[in-house]
């Protein structure tokens, strides 16, 4: 008997398969013609990254690597948010062990996406603050819909993001632009992100964004995949090695910082503001 969580193939038109993973907050759909997998985050309303979404993302990335897809496109099921970053509710009023788990799983997703040899692209169909920007900049290519915001806003919140979390961002922007944006905690509009090089293309719809991502991945069709993947990883090796050296200390540092009364207070105020914004 086929277990419902096991590669349940559901016909979706003539040329794509929805591969049900052992997860609920992400889906993986493989286009039979191109062999490219679309990984969709689906945790309403804003894809805030709780532990379950982070685990599901890891499982989906592994699935895509194992099913020999030609590339991975990361996107969101929601109409105006790619991902709101870490789930602040999950980090508020909780114990240190939970905070350690949150951070460990964020690290695990980042390294899985940043360190995959597969071609990767993000179809950014909505806002992508903080952890949302982290996922987008872990990919090799970004296409974004107009009139949304993307960036690492940690400095605005009085928080220092670790170097690994900034490394995708610093890979794609000139050092001077990255330093200024990170010290300002700047959120870029789509147009500003395009002009700075933080996103590669602008698309007027999610479908067009996915198509442009697929065209980017298709540009490697005639390149030997092993040579391509190893070349990519050579570019990323220094950041990956540096991250591996500090990953455990980084978890301890995050748990200590996030559990401190000062940061808990910042989170509480931030959450109040988010809730009140909804009432206005
Ligand atoms: C504040 C963080 C503090 C401390 C972190 C602790 C230690 C850190 C040390 C170093 C680490 C640094 C790294 C951090 C990585 C992160 O990712 S932190 C998360 C930062 N994220 C944000 O700042 C985004 C906040 N959200 C928004 O700006 C907007 O919601 C967004 C532009 C994404 C969408 O806007 P809109 O469509 O108008 O939706 P609403 O704002 O109305 O939101 C809808 C509901 O979703 C809830 N929500 C939004 N974001 C989050 C979130 N990140 N976590 C949990 N929940 C979120 C919001 O409350 C609304 O809920 P409601 O409908 O009112 O119930």
UniProtKB/TrEMBL annotation:
Pfam families per record: ECH_1 (PF00378)
CDD domains given in the database record: crotonase-like
Catalytic activity, reaction form: (3Z)-dodecenoyl-CoA = (2E)-dodecenoyl-CoA; (2E)-tetradecenoyl-CoA = (3Z)-tetradecenoyl-CoA; (3Z)-octenoyl-CoA = (2E)-octenoyl-CoA; (3Z)-decenoyl-CoA = (2E)-decenoyl-CoA
Chief place where the protein resides: mitochondrion
Localisation per UniProt entry: Mitochondrion matrix
Pathway assigned to this chain's UniProt record: Lipid metabolism; fatty acid beta-oxidation
GO molecular function list: delta(3)-delta(2)-enoyl-CoA isomerase activity
Biological process (GO), any one: fatty acid beta-oxidation
GO CC terms, sorted: mitochondrial matrix
Top-rank lineage group of the source organism: Eukaryota
Record key words, sorted: Acetylation, Fatty acid metabolism, Isomerase, Lipid metabolism, Mitochondrion, Transit peptide
Function: Key enzyme of fatty acid beta-oxidation. Able to isomerize both 3-cis (3Z) and 3-trans (3E) double bonds into the 2-trans (2E) form in a range of enoyl-CoA species, with a preference for (3Z)-enoyl-CoAs over (3E)-enoyl-CoAs. The catalytic efficiency of this enzyme is not affected by the fatty acyl chain length.
Known partners and oligomeric status: Homotrimer.
Protein name per UniProt: Enoyl-CoA delta isomerase 1, mitochondrial
Species per Swiss-Prot/TrEMBL record: Drosophila yakuba (Fruit fly)
């Amino acid at each position: 008997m086929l277990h419902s969580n096991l590669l349940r193939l559901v016909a979706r038109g003539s040329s794509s398969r929805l591969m049900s993973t052992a997860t609920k907050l992400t889906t993986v759909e493989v286009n039979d013609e191109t062999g490219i997998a679309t990984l969709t985050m689906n945790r309403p309303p804003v894809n805030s990254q709780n532990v379950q979404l982070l685990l599901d993302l890891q499982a989906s990335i592994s699935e895509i690597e194992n099913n020999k897809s030609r590339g991975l496109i990361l996107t969101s099921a929601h109409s105006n948010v790619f991902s709101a970053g870490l789930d602040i509710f999950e980090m508020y009023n909780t114990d240190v062990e939970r905070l350690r788990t949150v951070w460990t799983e964020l690290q695990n997703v980042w390294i899985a996406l940043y360190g995959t040899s597969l071609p990767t692209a993000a179809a950014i169909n909505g806002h992508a603050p903080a952890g949302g920007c982290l996922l987008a900049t872990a990919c090799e290519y970004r296409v974004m819909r107009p009139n949304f915001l993307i960036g690492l806003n940690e400095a605005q919140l009085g928080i220092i993001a670790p170097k690994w979390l900034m490394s995708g961002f610093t890979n794609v922007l000139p050092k001077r632009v990255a330093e200024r944006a990170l010290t300002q905690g700047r959120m870029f509009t789509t147009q500003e992100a395009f002009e700075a090089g933080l996103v590669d293309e602008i698309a007027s719809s999610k479908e067009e964004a996915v198509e442009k991502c697929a065209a980017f991945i298709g540009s490697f069709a005639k390149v030997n995949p092993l040579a391509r993947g190893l070349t990519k990883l050579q570019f990323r090796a220094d950041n990956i090695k540096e991250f591996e050296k500090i990953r455990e200390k980084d978890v301890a540092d995050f748990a200590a910082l996030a559990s401190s009364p000062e940061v808990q207070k910042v989170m509480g105020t931030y959450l109040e503001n988010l809730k009140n914004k909804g009432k206005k």
